[in-house]
Amino acid sequence: MKRVFLVNRRAGSGLTPRAVEQLSEYFRARDGSFEPLFAETRDEAIRQTREALARGIEQIVAVGGDGTANAALNGFFNADKNGGQLINPAACLAVARAGSGSDYFRGLSNGRRRDWREIALQPTIRRVDIGRLEPVDGQSLAPLYFLNMATLGFAAEVVQRKALMSPRWPRAARYLLPTLQGLRRVAPSRLRLRCDEQSLEREAFCVIVAKGAYSGGGMKFGSRVMLDDGQFELTLFRPMPAWRMMLKTPKLYSGNLDAEPNVEKHRAAVIEIDADPPFLVECDGDVIGRAAVRLKVVPQAVAVCFPPAT
Known about the structure:
By secondary structure, the protein is of the alpha+beta class. The chain has helices at about 15-30, 40-55, 65-75, 105-110, 115-120, 155-160, 175-180, 240-245, 250-255, and strands at about 5, 35-40, 60-65, 90-95, 125-135, 145, 150-155, 190-195, 200-205, 205-210, 215, 220, 230-235, 265-270, 270-275, 280-285, 285-290, 295-305. Helix 2 (about 40-55) crosses helix 3 and helix 6 (about 155-160) packs across helix 7 (about 175-180).
Protein backbone atom coordinates (compact mmCIF):
# COMPACT_ATOMS: atom_id res chain seq x y z
CA MET A 1 0.00 0.00 0.00
CA LYS A 2 1.41 3.38 -1.01
CA ARG A 3 1.16 5.72 2.00
CA VAL A 4 2.26 9.14 3.14
CA PHE A 5 2.42 10.60 6.64
CA LEU A 6 0.84 14.01 7.12
CA VAL A 7 2.85 15.27 10.10
CA ASN A 8 1.80 18.13 12.38
CA ARG A 9 4.95 18.87 14.38
CA ARG A 10 3.00 21.11 16.77
CA ALA A 11 0.48 18.45 17.80
CA GLY A 12 0.22 17.43 21.45
CA SER A 13 3.35 18.56 23.27
CA GLY A 14 5.17 18.83 19.94
CA LEU A 15 6.73 16.19 17.71
CA THR A 16 10.49 16.62 17.99
CA PRO A 17 12.86 15.85 15.10
CA ARG A 18 13.94 12.77 17.08
CA ALA A 19 10.30 11.60 17.36
CA VAL A 20 9.88 11.91 13.58
CA GLU A 21 13.17 10.07 13.08
CA GLN A 22 11.93 7.25 15.31
CA LEU A 23 8.76 6.99 13.23
CA SER A 24 10.89 6.81 10.11
CA GLU A 25 13.02 4.03 11.60
CA TYR A 26 9.94 2.07 12.69
CA PHE A 27 8.11 2.19 9.36
CA ARG A 28 11.21 1.67 7.23
CA ALA A 29 12.00 -1.44 9.26
CA ARG A 30 8.46 -2.78 8.93
CA ASP A 31 7.41 -1.55 5.50
CA GLY A 32 10.52 -0.31 3.74
CA SER A 33 9.37 3.28 3.30
CA PHE A 34 8.46 6.46 5.15
CA GLU A 35 7.33 9.54 3.22
CA PRO A 36 6.50 12.48 5.54
CA LEU A 37 4.63 15.61 4.53
CA PHE A 38 5.17 18.46 6.99
CA ALA A 39 2.23 20.86 7.20
CA GLU A 40 2.57 24.10 9.13
CA THR A 41 -1.01 25.26 8.57
CA ARG A 42 -4.42 23.67 8.09
CA ASP A 43 -4.66 24.91 4.49
CA GLU A 44 -1.25 23.43 3.72
CA ALA A 45 -2.31 20.06 5.20
CA ILE A 46 -5.46 20.02 3.04
CA ARG A 47 -3.47 20.91 -0.09
CA GLN A 48 -0.79 18.29 0.55
CA THR A 49 -3.43 15.60 1.11
CA ARG A 50 -5.15 16.48 -2.18
CA GLU A 51 -1.88 16.39 -4.08
CA ALA A 52 -0.88 13.05 -2.56
CA LEU A 53 -4.21 11.42 -3.42
CA ALA A 54 -4.11 12.84 -6.94
CA ARG A 55 -0.75 11.11 -7.56
CA GLY A 56 -2.07 7.74 -6.46
CA ILE A 57 -1.34 7.53 -2.73
CA GLU A 58 -3.60 4.88 -1.19
CA GLN A 59 -3.33 5.72 2.53
CA ILE A 60 -3.00 9.06 4.31
CA VAL A 61 -1.71 8.73 7.88
CA ALA A 62 -2.65 11.82 9.92
CA VAL A 63 0.14 12.15 12.50
CA GLY A 64 -1.26 14.66 14.95
CA GLY A 65 -4.49 15.19 16.82
CA ASP A 66 -8.10 15.61 15.81
CA GLY A 67 -7.36 18.83 13.93
CA THR A 68 -4.77 17.08 11.75
CA ALA A 69 -7.20 14.25 11.01
CA ASN A 70 -9.87 16.82 10.12
CA ALA A 71 -7.54 18.63 7.71
CA ALA A 72 -6.65 15.30 6.07
CA LEU A 73 -10.35 14.44 5.74
CA ASN A 74 -11.09 17.71 3.98
CA GLY A 75 -8.15 17.00 1.68
CA PHE A 76 -9.89 13.81 0.51
CA PHE A 77 -12.32 16.06 -1.37
CA ASN A 78 -11.53 18.35 -4.26
CA ALA A 79 -11.65 22.10 -3.88
CA ASP A 80 -15.13 22.64 -5.34
CA LYS A 81 -16.75 25.17 -3.01
CA ASN A 82 -20.10 23.39 -3.35
CA GLY A 83 -18.76 20.33 -1.55
CA GLY A 84 -16.62 18.52 -4.09
CA GLN A 85 -16.06 14.88 -4.86
CA LEU A 86 -13.63 12.36 -3.42
CA ILE A 87 -10.30 12.61 -5.22
CA ASN A 88 -9.59 8.89 -4.79
CA PRO A 89 -12.61 6.95 -3.44
CA ALA A 90 -10.45 3.85 -2.82
CA ALA A 91 -7.95 5.63 -0.56
CA CYS A 92 -8.14 5.29 3.23
CA LEU A 93 -7.38 7.49 6.23
CA ALA A 94 -5.35 6.28 9.22
CA VAL A 95 -5.33 8.35 12.41
CA ALA A 96 -2.43 8.56 14.85
CA ARG A 97 -2.70 9.09 18.59
CA ALA A 98 -0.38 12.09 18.70
CA GLY A 99 -2.50 15.06 19.79
CA SER A 100 -3.60 16.50 23.12
CA GLY A 101 -7.06 14.97 22.67
CA SER A 102 -6.92 12.36 19.89
CA ASP A 103 -10.60 11.69 20.56
CA TYR A 104 -11.44 10.23 17.16
CA PHE A 105 -8.69 7.66 17.60
CA ARG A 106 -10.15 6.88 21.03
CA GLY A 107 -13.46 6.07 19.36
CA LEU A 108 -11.85 3.93 16.65
CA SER A 109 -10.19 1.82 19.33
CA ASN A 110 -13.28 1.72 21.62
CA GLY A 111 -11.43 3.64 24.34
CA ARG A 112 -8.61 1.08 24.50
CA ARG A 113 -4.93 1.95 24.20
CA ARG A 114 -3.83 0.62 20.81
CA ASP A 115 -0.65 1.15 18.82
CA TRP A 116 -1.68 3.43 15.98
CA ARG A 117 1.39 2.40 13.98
CA GLU A 118 0.17 -1.19 13.80
CA ILE A 119 -3.28 -0.01 12.80
CA ALA A 120 -1.74 1.92 9.88
CA LEU A 121 0.26 -1.12 8.78
CA GLN A 122 -2.38 -3.82 9.26
CA PRO A 123 -5.77 -2.10 9.28
CA THR A 124 -9.30 -3.30 9.15
CA ILE A 125 -10.75 -0.84 6.65
CA ARG A 126 -14.35 0.32 6.98
CA ARG A 127 -16.29 3.10 5.37
CA VAL A 128 -17.66 5.55 7.93
CA ASP A 129 -20.09 8.44 8.03
CA ILE A 130 -18.78 11.96 8.20
CA GLY A 131 -20.46 15.27 8.93
CA ARG A 132 -20.76 18.20 6.55
CA LEU A 133 -21.13 21.65 8.09
CA GLU A 134 -22.27 24.62 6.05
CA PRO A 135 -23.61 28.09 6.86
CA VAL A 136 -27.36 28.52 6.58
CA ASP A 137 -26.84 31.81 4.73
CA GLY A 138 -24.41 30.17 2.28
CA GLN A 139 -21.84 32.95 2.73
CA SER A 140 -20.43 33.46 6.24
CA LEU A 141 -18.45 30.18 6.37
CA ALA A 142 -17.06 27.83 3.76
CA PRO A 143 -18.58 24.31 3.86
CA LEU A 144 -16.35 21.72 5.51
CA TYR A 145 -16.37 18.10 6.62
CA PHE A 146 -15.74 16.64 10.06
CA LEU A 147 -15.03 13.16 11.37
CA ASN A 148 -15.89 13.36 15.03
CA MET A 149 -17.86 16.28 16.47
CA ALA A 150 -19.03 19.81 15.92
CA THR A 151 -19.61 21.85 19.06
CA LEU A 152 -21.31 25.21 19.51
CA GLY A 153 -21.35 27.72 22.32
CA PHE A 154 -19.57 26.92 25.56
CA ALA A 155 -17.75 23.81 24.28
CA ALA A 156 -16.35 25.71 21.29
CA GLU A 157 -15.15 28.44 23.65
CA VAL A 158 -13.36 25.79 25.73
CA VAL A 159 -11.54 24.66 22.57
CA GLN A 160 -10.60 28.25 21.82
CA ARG A 161 -9.18 28.77 25.33
CA LYS A 162 -7.40 25.40 25.25
CA ALA A 163 -5.52 26.50 22.13
CA LEU A 164 -3.94 29.32 24.15
CA MET A 165 -2.63 27.03 26.90
CA SER A 166 1.00 25.97 27.13
CA PRO A 167 1.72 22.49 25.72
CA ARG A 168 3.51 21.78 29.00
CA TRP A 169 0.16 21.21 30.70
CA PRO A 170 -0.85 17.52 31.00
CA ARG A 171 -3.14 16.44 28.16
CA ALA A 172 -6.23 15.91 30.32
CA ALA A 173 -5.83 19.29 32.03
CA ARG A 174 -5.84 21.16 28.72
CA TYR A 175 -9.59 20.48 28.39
CA LEU A 176 -10.65 20.12 32.00
CA LEU A 177 -9.18 23.42 33.27
CA PRO A 178 -10.74 25.63 30.54
CA THR A 179 -14.04 23.82 31.14
CA LEU A 180 -14.06 24.54 34.88
CA GLN A 181 -12.84 28.12 34.41
CA GLY A 182 -15.42 28.90 31.74
CA LEU A 183 -18.38 27.65 33.77
CA ARG A 184 -18.13 30.72 36.00
CA ARG A 185 -19.07 33.09 33.18
CA VAL A 186 -21.09 31.00 30.76
CA ALA A 187 -24.09 32.75 29.14
CA PRO A 188 -26.99 31.00 27.36
CA SER A 189 -28.44 31.83 23.95
CA ARG A 190 -31.90 31.43 22.50
CA LEU A 191 -31.81 28.57 19.98
CA ARG A 192 -33.91 27.69 17.00
CA LEU A 193 -33.25 24.05 16.14
CA ARG A 194 -34.38 21.78 13.36
CA CYS A 195 -33.65 18.07 13.78
CA ASP A 196 -34.76 16.41 10.54
CA GLU A 197 -38.45 17.42 10.41
CA GLN A 198 -38.77 18.45 14.08
CA SER A 199 -38.53 22.15 14.96
CA LEU A 200 -37.55 23.21 18.50
CA GLU A 201 -36.89 26.41 20.42
CA ARG A 202 -34.70 26.24 23.48
CA GLU A 203 -32.52 28.31 25.75
CA ALA A 204 -29.09 26.68 26.00
CA PHE A 205 -25.43 27.44 26.53
CA CYS A 206 -23.86 24.49 24.69
CA VAL A 207 -24.68 22.10 21.84
CA ILE A 208 -22.68 19.00 20.86
CA VAL A 209 -23.32 17.35 17.48
CA ALA A 210 -21.57 13.98 17.60
CA LYS A 211 -20.65 11.57 14.82
CA GLY A 212 -18.01 9.97 17.06
CA ALA A 213 -18.15 9.07 20.73
CA TYR A 214 -15.51 11.20 22.49
CA SER A 215 -14.50 14.84 22.67
CA GLY A 216 -12.57 17.15 24.97
CA GLY A 217 -9.82 14.68 25.84
CA GLY A 218 -12.06 11.73 26.73
CA MET A 219 -15.45 13.29 27.53
CA LYS A 220 -18.13 10.97 26.15
CA PHE A 221 -20.92 12.86 24.44
CA GLY A 222 -21.82 10.36 21.71
CA SER A 223 -23.07 7.71 24.11
CA ARG A 224 -25.29 5.94 21.55
CA VAL A 225 -23.83 7.08 18.26
CA MET A 226 -22.13 4.73 15.79
CA LEU A 227 -19.65 5.67 13.10
CA ASP A 228 -21.81 4.25 10.29
CA ASP A 229 -25.44 4.54 11.42
CA GLY A 230 -26.39 7.59 9.33
CA GLN A 231 -27.29 9.68 12.39
CA PHE A 232 -25.88 12.43 14.57
CA GLU A 233 -26.42 12.42 18.31
CA LEU A 234 -27.18 15.95 19.51
CA THR A 235 -26.63 16.88 23.16
CA LEU A 236 -28.07 20.19 24.34
CA PHE A 237 -27.22 21.77 27.72
CA ARG A 238 -29.92 24.05 29.10
CA PRO A 239 -29.06 26.80 31.62
CA MET A 240 -28.06 25.68 35.11
CA PRO A 241 -25.98 27.12 37.96
CA ALA A 242 -22.23 26.78 37.50
CA TRP A 243 -21.89 24.73 40.69
CA ARG A 244 -24.41 22.22 39.38
CA MET A 245 -22.57 21.85 36.09
CA MET A 246 -19.32 21.33 37.97
CA LEU A 247 -20.94 18.48 39.90
CA LYS A 248 -21.81 16.86 36.57
CA THR A 249 -18.18 16.86 35.41
CA PRO A 250 -17.64 13.12 36.15
CA LYS A 251 -20.66 12.32 33.98
CA LEU A 252 -19.05 14.17 31.07
CA TYR A 253 -16.42 11.42 31.07
CA SER A 254 -18.73 8.47 31.77
CA GLY A 255 -21.36 9.54 29.21
CA ASN A 256 -24.20 9.06 31.72
CA LEU A 257 -26.04 12.24 30.78
CA ASP A 258 -29.27 10.88 29.32
CA ALA A 259 -31.31 11.15 32.53
CA GLU A 260 -30.03 14.60 33.56
CA PRO A 261 -32.90 17.15 33.76
CA ASN A 262 -30.92 19.98 32.14
CA VAL A 263 -29.52 17.83 29.34
CA GLU A 264 -31.50 16.99 26.22
CA LYS A 265 -30.66 14.40 23.55
CA HIS A 266 -31.84 14.07 19.94
CA ARG A 267 -30.87 11.95 16.93
CA ALA A 268 -31.09 13.23 13.37
CA ALA A 269 -29.39 13.09 9.98
CA VAL A 270 -29.80 16.83 9.30
CA ILE A 271 -29.60 19.51 11.98
CA GLU A 272 -29.93 23.30 11.70
CA ILE A 273 -28.89 25.56 14.58
CA ASP A 274 -29.43 29.30 14.84
CA ALA A 275 -28.52 31.02 18.13
CA ASP A 276 -29.22 34.52 19.42
CA PRO A 277 -26.64 35.77 20.32
CA PRO A 278 -24.70 33.70 17.76
CA PHE A 279 -22.78 30.67 19.02
CA LEU A 280 -19.09 30.10 18.36
CA VAL A 281 -18.65 26.96 16.22
CA GLU A 282 -15.79 24.44 16.09
CA CYS A 283 -15.23 21.12 14.33
CA ASP A 284 -12.74 18.46 15.44
CA GLY A 285 -10.76 20.97 17.48
CA ASP A 286 -10.65 23.81 14.93
CA VAL A 287 -12.61 26.99 15.73
CA ILE A 288 -14.57 28.13 12.66
CA GLY A 289 -16.45 31.30 13.65
CA ARG A 290 -19.95 32.46 14.62
CA ALA A 291 -22.87 31.64 12.33
CA ALA A 292 -26.13 29.78 11.96
CA VAL A 293 -25.16 26.36 10.59
CA ARG A 294 -26.61 23.29 8.90
CA LEU A 295 -25.06 19.89 9.63
CA LYS A 296 -25.66 16.83 7.44
CA VAL A 297 -24.53 13.23 7.76
CA VAL A 298 -22.76 11.99 4.64
CA PRO A 299 -23.28 8.21 4.94
CA GLN A 300 -20.26 5.89 4.64
CA ALA A 301 -18.34 8.55 2.78
CA VAL A 302 -14.69 7.74 3.58
CA ALA A 303 -12.63 4.61 4.24
CA VAL A 304 -10.97 4.69 7.67
CA CYS A 305 -8.41 2.35 9.27
CA PHE A 306 -9.61 0.48 12.37
CA PRO A 307 -7.61 -1.87 14.61
CA PRO A 308 -7.01 -5.31 13.09
CA ALA A 309 -9.86 -7.74 13.62
CA THR A 310 -9.17 -10.21 16.45
